[in-house]
C-alpha cells in the first residue's frame, strides 16, 4: 500500500512538541541541573520504574511508517547513549482514540537531546539515522492497567525538509 501522505520532518521544537511531552536537554551553564522528574508523575498504581537500554539499527529517509504505539498510563523517556540523529513522530488521538495522522508532527533530533513522551501520546518506536544507535529507556511498568497499545495506521512517509539554498552571490556582490 502506498503512503497516504508525506510528513516533512523539522528540527526539534520544544513548543511544538509540548502537547506530546518534553525535550530533554542539558542545562546551558556548567554545574547546573535540569530536572524532568515531574514528567514521570504520578506513576500508575502498582508499577515500578523500569530502565533498559536498546540497540537500534539505522533507517533511511524517506521512511514509510505503518504503525504507532502509546502508553495510556505512563510517560516514556528516551535518552540517547550513542546516537547520531533519530526520528520522532507523534500524533494526538482523534475522537475515537486512534492516531490522528492529519495532525502528526515529525522531527529529526540530534543525539544530544532526549524525549519524554507524555502518557497516552501516539509515537513511533525508536528509529535512528546514519548509524546504529543506543538509547536508555525509562518508564513505569507492571500493575493492573494495560499500558502498551500498538495500532496499525495507513502508511505515511517521513521526508527530510526541503532546504532552500542561499542564492549564490554574483561577482558584483562579492566583497574584495
Domain module tally: 1
Structural class: mainly beta
What strand order characterises the main sheet? 2-8-5-11-3
The shape, in one word, is globular
Order of SSEs: EHEEEEEEEEEEE
How are the SSEs ordered, and which strands pair?
Layout: E1 5-8, H1 14-17, E2 21-24, E3 47-56, E4 63-70, E5 76-82, E6 85-91, E7 105-110, E8 114-117, E9 122-123, E10 127-129, E11 133-142, E12 149-159
Parallel strand pairs: 1-12
Antiparallel strand pairs: 2-8, 3-11, 4-12, 5-8, 5-11, 6-7, 6-9, 6-10
Q: How would you characterize this protein structure?
A:
This protein is mostly beta strands and 176 residues long. Helices cover 2% and strands 43% of the residues. It has a single domain (5-26, 43-159), classed as Jelly Rolls, CATH 2.60.120. A five-stranded antiparallel beta sheet has the order 2-8-5-11-3, with no helix packed on it. Strands 6, 7, 9 and 10 form a four-stranded antiparallel beta sheet that branches. It starts with a strand and ends in a 17-residue tail after the last strand. Residues 168-176 have low confidence and may be disordered.
Amino acid at each position: 500500500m502506498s503512503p497516504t501522505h508525506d510528513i516533512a520532518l523539522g528540527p526539534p521544537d520544544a513548543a511544538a512538541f509540548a502537547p506530546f511531552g518534553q525535550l530533554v536537554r542539558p542545562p546551558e551553564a556548567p554545574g547546573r541541573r535540569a530536572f524532568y522528574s515531574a514528567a514521570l508523575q504520578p506513576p500508575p498504581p502498582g508499577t515500578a520504574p523500569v530502565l533498559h537500554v536498546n540497540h537500534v539499527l539505522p533507517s533511511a529517509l524517506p521512511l514509510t511508517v505503518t504503525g504507532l504505539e502509546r502508553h495510556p498510563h505512563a510517560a516514556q523517556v528516551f535518552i540517547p547513549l550513542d546516537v547520531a540523529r533519530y526520528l520522532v513522530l507523534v500524533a494526538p488521538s482523534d475522537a475515537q482514540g486512534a492516531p490522528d495522522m492529519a495532525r502528526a508532527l515529525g522531527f529529526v533530533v540530534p543525539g544530544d537531546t532526549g524525549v519524554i513522551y507524555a502518557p497516552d501520546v501516539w509515537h513511533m518506536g525508536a528509529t535512528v539515522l546514519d548509524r546504529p544507535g543506543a538509547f536508555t529507556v525509562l518508564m513505569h511498568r507492571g500493575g493492573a492497567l494495560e499500558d502498551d497499545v500498538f495500532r496499525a495506521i495507513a502508511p505515511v512517509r517521513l521526508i527530510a525538509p526541503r532546504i532552500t539554498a542561499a542564492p549564490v552571490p554574483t561577482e558584483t556582490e562579492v566583497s574584495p
